[in-house]
What we know:
The protein is of the alpha+beta class. It has 17 helices and 28 strands.
Amino acid sequence: MAKVAINLSTGSIQxxxxxxxxDLGTTNSLVAYIHPEGRQPLAINDQGRGTIVPxxxxxxxxxxxxxxxxxxxxxxxxxxxxxxxxxKRLLGKSYHDLGQHAEExxxxxxxxxxxxxxxxxxxxxxxxPIELSAEILKELRLRAExxxxxxxxxxxITVPAYFNDSQRQATRDAGRLAGLEVLxxxxxxxxxALAYGIGLSPDEEKTVAVYDLGGGTFDVSxxxxxxxxxxxxxxxxxxxxxxxxxxxxxxxxxASEYQLSTILFQNPSAQQELRLLAEQAKRQLSSQDTxxxxxxxxxxxxxxxxxxxxxxxxxxxxxxxxxxALADAKLTPQDLDAVLLVGGSTRVPLxxxxxxxxxxxxxxxxxxxDEVVALGAAIQADIxxxxxxxxxxxxxxxxxxGIETLGGLMDPIIPRNSKIPTKAGRQYTTSVDGQVNxxxxxxxxxxxxxxxxxxxxxxxxxxxxxxxxxxxxxDVNFILNADGILKVEAIELRSNTRQAVEIxxxxxxxxxxxxxxxxxxLTHAREDVAARMVIEARTVAEQMLYQVERFVAKNxxxxxxxxxxxxxxxxxxxxTALTTQDKDTILKxxxxxxxxxxxxxxxxxxxxxxxxxxxxxxx
Length: 619
Ligand code: AMP
């Protein structure tokens, strides 16, 4: 039976509202839906271009009109600075979080030396990983709309089980920027289980392992499924291990065995050619026993036995992770009802054998490992769309609950559509030295700025011991019980000071009002995310100003007149930038002030280290 939906903004009636499932991957992304007739999940293959969309965004000539996917991928070598790949690794992360990995990327990640979220510079513009992920999602959305010939506004998006709140929120924001209402963020292993039909009946109880080896990342999760609830018991992996490393092992073998280092050193396009041949060899050896190719007159052979020998250490590392995950879940292989394989690299027979041997049962690889996560996301979308009456849908909270943070931003604690009862929390700190009170304002709604949401309550946590800003640790917990009553409690951990309130979030709200709040969040998605980005840029800038001014006041005697006057000019420029509402201008000024102060900041640090050392006495 076809469903009919009414578009609230236009009043028009739509036939069958489509909710798509999206696998937003590090290397590749896909979109899937439930075919209305067969009611089977299908990955969308628009115009015969295949189901896989490489997660690559290219800005031709460093301009601001990006292209996405296979067309973008070809610029990875020729225009690396304008071609962004692996952006999923940056989602919800600060430069600090990335560490050395920031330098390994072909494009420029801005080092603003702060805890703020990273930005990527392309040409004269700064992009957040959210904006770049949104470009990938937009491409998927367009493909779905084109293939299905209907508007697509709603989606379920998958994330790795180990993603934290900030990475999940970033994924949601990316969806919204791409014009999608993200009905739920689902763990990738949960989606894989659903695709294999596990967890679809309410009385089912199963424990499964999901082994996911993609192009650049590896993870394994142990899930327990009980009464329609998917609980992640443990997860393990290596975010820098994948099919690319298998290719690299072949590449290195050929390079040393056939003395190719001179030609490779002189010729970057030869490197690329050899890399492609290595991947081709790997793929062929998944179904055949030998491979041979010609590389500029040299014959490069590879037997399956040699390939297995080359990649054995990498496969062994993944098995070590599996052992750890199982131990963390306090289970043995016999406790597992199934082992599911996800990711293109699980097509390597040695991987299949090693995983099956370790878990003492044949791993399940009957579904296409590239598509399985997207297919599961489509099934989850179908469940949320109310099309599977047989599946238990627990009560959910219709609007997001959260608190106000710096700059009037909404920090979601319990996202909308969370099953209730539920409990979630986050840690906060003070922003001013010696602060003894913290105001907790509780809001409900989907907008990024609290002033657009509905205020539910406000209270002060008093009696925090006076400490420097950033030291107090305040846990804010939201406990939403099965009757929809929300209890918010705040605890300062060092002193154990606590305060709590109880609220009824749905009190006085009609269904129409809830609907209106959701509609508003969609209509205002672009301006909201833009406003949030400006606020985040301003916060980064204000922290930078505070640090630089404090630094100059403390270490002025070690600086030359010229350095002081240059810094003053940089500070002024940043203050002027702050008067605009343009995040790119602000971030550019932050970047420049950082570049300007870095050399002497390092010098002064060396001076103070050597003074400290000189002052040390050896007893
Ligand atoms: P994913 O990130 O899941 O799309 O995985 C892509 C990875 O799977 C890449 O490293 C591919 O080289 C690899 N891959 C795809 N097909 C095969 C195959 N037949 N044999 C081995 N690896 C493959």
